[in-house]
Automatic annotation (TrEMBL):
Database matches in Pfam families: N6_Mtase (PF02384)
Keywords: Methyltransferase, Restriction system, S-adenosyl-L-methionine, Transferase
Single GO biological process annotation from the record: methylation
Protein name: site-specific DNA-methyltransferase (adenine-specific)
Gene3D superfamilies membership: Vaccinia Virus protein VP39 (3.40.50.150)
Lineage: Bacteria, Pseudomonadati, Bacteroidota, Bacteroidia, Bacteroidales
Lineage top rank: taxon: Bacteria
EC number(s) stated in the UniProt entry for this protein: 2.1.1.72
Catalytic activity: a 2'-deoxyadenosine in DNA + S-adenosyl-L-methionine = an N(6)-methyl-2'-deoxyadenosine in DNA + S-adenosyl-L-homocysteine + H(+)
Family of this protein: Belongs to the N(4)/N(6)-methyltransferase family.
All residue ranges annotated as the DNA methylase adenine-specific domain in the record: 2-123
InterPro entries noted in UniProt: DNA_Adenine_Mtase (IPR051537), DNA_methylase_A-5 (IPR003356), SAM-dependent_MTases_sf (IPR029063)
Molecular function in Gene Ontology: DNA binding; N-methyltransferase activity; site-specific DNA-methyltransferase (adenine-specific) activity
Species annotation: Bacteroides xylanisolvens XB1A
């Protein structure tokens, strides 16, 4: 990221794919890089991509940072960025995740194109932000935490220990039955009979 920032010409534009860790990391180096990005460049858009977009090669969630090497008019003193838009690209209908047999297609990016030319803040029915604009002051107050407009997390049901054990033994018994059935079929095909004591 630092090399791209260093090599970007005056008035140059960049779109850089980064892993999620870059967005929410606030250790010294990441914080310094993100602060420099806001001060020396116009970081105007961050697109949050679905976690399986590069499957099967990696399951790491990624994002696209769009910035250019110029100062925005009316940006606060000491900064080139005035505001940054965040947009979350959700999985298309009929997809639980992308894979080698069900890869991402160009038409799956259509929602980004539509939003890009008509930017507005979007809150989904479940109350999660899908798109939002943050001022550079907001981002500084957030310690440059760019982990905004996140993907909703499925709530995990926590069962009592006794119920967990009961479910485990039921699943294990069903699996043992399937294994025994398959082994019996293999023995029949081979014409051998093995009895275990």
């Amino acid at each position: 990221m630092v090399l791209i920032m260093y090599r970007l010409k005056a008035n140059g534009r960049a779109a850089v794919i980064v892993p999620d860790g870059f967005l929410f990391g606030v250790d010294g180096a990441k914080l310094a890089i993100k602060t420099k990005l806001l001060k020396d460049f116009n970081l105007h858009t961050i697109i949050r991509l679905p976690g399986s977009i590069f499957s099967p090669y990696t399951s790491i969630a990624t994002n696209i940072l769009f910035f250019n090497n110029e100062r925005v008019e009316d940006a606060p003193d000491g900064y080139s960025t005035k505001e940054t838009w965040f947009y979350r690209l959700d999985m298309p209908d009929g997809y639980k995740h992308f894979s080698k047999t069900k890869p991402m297609k160009l038409e799956h990016c259509q929602p980004i194109k539509e939003w890009w030319h008509d930017r507005k803040e979007i809150v989904s029915q479940d109350g999660n932000e899908k798109s939002r604009c943050f001022s550079v002051q907001d981002l500084i107050l957030l310690d440059c935490n760019f982990d905004q407009c996140k993907f909703p997390k499925d709530e995990e049901e926590i069962l009592p220990p006794a119920e967990l054990l009961t479910n485990y033994f039921k699943k294990r018994a069903a699996l043992d039955y399937e294994i025994d059935k398959t082994l019996a079929e293999i023995q029949k095909l081979l014409g051998i009979e093995i009895k275990l004591d």
